[in-house]
Design a protein that fits this description.
With 418 residues, the protein is of the alpha+beta class. Helices cover 70% and strands 9% of the residues. It has twelve helices and five strands. It has a five-stranded mixed beta sheet, covered by helices on one side. It is rod-shaped, with a radius of gyration of 48 Å.
Length: 418
């Protein structure tokens, strides 16, 4: 329960039982001082009847307040006026009954609308000033003077405290307005977050669809640049072998066709391997890269080394597959175009990112002169860059004619889903 709720509960208890307690206190003190103040039998009987009436009024209000909404109302105004009239009459009979009349100071905000609160407070101040001056009505000029001075003092205090109460009420309204505005803002923010989550999901779907389209284009270009060209070469060699009368030359053409067929078969296997990087299932990315480099070195007759730096961490499948395929594509480009004698692959775990570097000492090229797609292999660089960018990474290429080539891919270190 909040502090505000606890305070409201305490005020509710006081509103219900406070009038009874103050009435009993005033009645006991008035009855004890009746002889000293010279109350007659009729005044005592009248005070008793008014006290019983006050008890009945409080009982009626207690029952009524359970079924009515909280806050000022016409019934609340009647309750305040009747309570004040009883308190004034009792104080007229005995000044000590003012203990009951003082309840008017505490019930104005709950019973009276704002326009009547100062009037209600001033009416209560009249009753208390009469009690403080020795009783109502004053008996002589000095009594009237004392009553006027006390009424003025009570009136000033009432107006001052009423002003402070109004300021506090305005501040409370401002707080409520601020809370309501914050709730509206939070609702709007939550709605925006929900819309952003939906948009994020939509973007993920679109990104996956774009990735599928990119992969299809890459495979189409790769089949065209490798398998189709290899088959074309095989057909050409077989046609020449079939038409040549020289058996030695024909045998050479057949050997060349066989070599092209084996090379095309290797390209087909590599393409299928790229579709589903099963190498990641055993040993993670470092193990898959180590096997890829070893197999590539054996098939291409190029000495290659693989190195891991930093603390190895399990990567998300998408990140690991992206780096593995970039490595395979870069090594394939090296085998096809670089004419290298050595190559090196380095996987580096660097805090919040992972870097993959593929270097060779081949013939190199001018990166600015490479087109988006050519039959000589330019499509491979664009495909590698697209792969990296699809997972919020980047790819850079450093090369110059005769100076070898260095391909560097950087991706965020997104850990494997538990």
């Amino acid at each position: 329960m909040t502090e505000s709720a606890r305070l409201e509960d305490r005020w509710a208890v006081f509103d219900r039982w406070g009038p009874y307690g103050l009435l009993v206190l005033g009645a006991v003190l008035a009855w004890a001082s009746a002889d000293a103040l010279g109350m007659s039998t009729g005044e005592r009987q009248t005070a008793g009847a008014l006290t019983a009436g006050a008890v009945a009024l409080e009982l009626w209000w207690g029952v009524r307040s359970r079924t009515r909404p909280p806050g000022p109302s016409a019934a609340g105004i009647r309750q305040y006026v009747l309570r004040w009239a009883l308190g004034f009459a009792l104080t007229w009979l005995n000044p000590l009954f003012a203990f009951y009349a003082v309840i008017g100071y505490f019930s104005t905000e709950r019973l009276l609308p704002r326009a009547l609160r100062k009037a209600g407070l001033c009416a209560t101040a009249v009753t208390l000033a009469g009690s403080q001056s020795g009783g109502l009505p004053p008996h002589d000029g000095l009594g009237w003077t004392l009553f006027g001075a006390l009424l003025a003092a009570n009136g000033i205090l009432v107006l001052l405290f009423g002003h402070f109460a109004d300021l506090e009420e305005d501040r409370g309204r401002a707080r409520l307005a601020t809370i309501a505005e914050l709730e509206r803002t939070n609702t709007a923010l939550q709605r925006a977050l929900d819309e952003n989550a939906a948009l994020h999901s939509q973007l993920l779907v679109q990104a996956r669809e774009a990735g599928v389209a990119d992969e299809r284009r890459r495979l189409a270009a790769e089949i065209h640049d490798t398998l189709a060209q290899g088959l074309t070469g095989i057909i050409a060699q077989l046609q020449v072998a079939a038409n040549t009368p020289d058996p030695v030359a024909g045998r050479a053409r057949l050997d060349r066709a066989l070599a092209l067929a084996r090379e095309s078969l290797g390209e087909a296997r590599r393409s299928v391997h790229n579709l589903a990087p099963v190498a990641l299932a055993d040993g993670g990315l470092p193990g898959a890269l180590r096997r890829t480099v070893a197999e590539w070195s054996e098939h291409s007759d190029v000495r290659a080394e693989f190195t891991v730096t930093g603390t190895v961490e399990p990567l998300h499948d998408e990140m690991a597959a992206t780096l593995l395929r970039i490595a395979q594509e870069a090594l394939a480009n090296t085998a096809r175009h670089a004419g290298a004698t050595r190559a090196g692959v380095t996987l580096s775990y660097m805090g919040d990112e992972v870097t993959l570097d593929i270097r060779d000492d081949g013939r190199g090229f001018d990166p600015l002169a490479v087109r988006a797609r050519t039959s000589a292999g330019g499509f491979g660089l664009g495909g590698m860059r697209a792969r990296a960018e699809r997972v919020a990474g980047s790819l850079t290429v450093e090369s110059e004619p005769g100076g070898g080539t260095a391909v560097s891919a950087r991706v965020p270190l997104v850990r494997h889903d538990p």
